[in-house]
Design goal:
two-stranded antiparallel sheet, 4-stranded parallel sheet, 229 residues, binds zinc ion, Rossmann fold, 8 helices
């Protein structure tokens, strides 16, 4: 253990148990749960989550190339607890860890030399007021820093947009249609747009953003999320 760890003991990014130094971010218990979650099989394609390239049903009819990647399925206690923490607690170490994990997926999805830009769906204003931060924005910023790809505010959120979590699937679709817009001067023309999100649920948000990106002239979309239902 280094002097640094004695002064600032390292804690598990999830449960906050003290851990020994080195590369570890989780305690052994959380590490095992996380690895198991990542290696679990996608219920649609039967591949490990890390290798799953299933595209949400709502994204398929859009006339733009979309590839989708995620870290783990949004099911089970541990997955839900991680996402809950990501949305409710502004925990820098968890945010950084997940950003590194997502950055690896971005590197797989974007060819070197390709003109790409990173963006995200902004959180509802009411939720930002309630929790004090936007988890997707923080994630996207961190991923941009790690991958050295530019971050751009491509999308903005109408004041009327309700928080997606409070809605049914049908309402989500309608709400997503109203909630997001292209920002003035959004520059995605001819580029690959990497959309970073915490959870992809129905695909309504991703579908709306992809349609907007297409309108803005984006060449293709790489959708990277922490968890997917
Ligand atoms: Zn732990
Ligand atoms: Zn799959």
């Amino acid at each position: 253990m280094s002097i640094w760890n004695l002064i600032f003991p390292k804690k598990c990014v999830f449960c906050r148990e003290f851990i020994s130094g080195g590369e570890n971010v989780f305690c052994p218990v959380c590490e095992a749960k996380y690895e198991q979650m990542k290696r679990a099989f996608c219920k649609h394609c039967g591949r490990e989550n890390a290798l799953c390239r299933c595209v949400a049903t709502k994204l398929r009819p859009l006339d733009i190339r979309i590839s989708e990647r995620h870290l783990f399925a949004y099911e089970g206690e541990f997955a839900r607890a991680i996402i809950y923490k990501l949305k409710r607690k502004n925990a820098a170490d968890l945010q950084k860890f997940l950003a590194h994990e997502c950055a690896a997926l971005v590197r797989e999805g974007v060819r070197s030399g390709e003109k790409a830009v990173i963006s995200y769906p902004p959180r509802a204003h009411s939720a930002v007021r309630e929790y004090g931060f936007d988890q997707a924005q923080i994630l996207a910023r961190n991923v941009a820093e790690i991958t050295q790809l530019p971050l751009a505010e491509i999308f903005c959120r109408g004041e009327g947009g309700k928080a997606q979590k409070t809605l049914t699937a049908k309402e989500r679709e309608e709400n997503a249609g109203k909630a997001y817009f292209l920002t003035d001067g959004a520059d995605v023309g001819g580029k690959t747009l990497v959309i970073i999100d915490d959870v992809v649920t129905s695909g309504s948000t991703a579908a709306r953003l992809s349609a907007l990106a297409k309108e803005g002239g984006a060449k293709r979309i790489v959708l990277v999320s922490v968890a997917k239902t």
